[in-house]
Amino acid sequence: xxxxxxxxxxxxxxxxxxxxxxxxxxxxxxxxxxxxxxxxxxxxxxxxxxxxxxxxxxxxxxxxxxxxxxxx
Length: 72
What we know:
Number of domains: 1
Structural class: mainly alpha
Helix content: over 70%
Largest sheet: none
Distance between the termini: 18 Å
Shape: elongated
């Protein structure tokens, strides 16, 4: 059962990154309705922490599920 806590923490990390991503994109949309190159670059960079969080979560899932899969 302790393995599940790492999965829950990892999923929470990804969810937090997604919430921050959505909040910043919405904020950028409200600040300037017209196209702005600077805001466009920021909106392109915002999803990067979500990708990093997802990549960091993958080994946690592998370490959690791999021993159980190898037992079968």
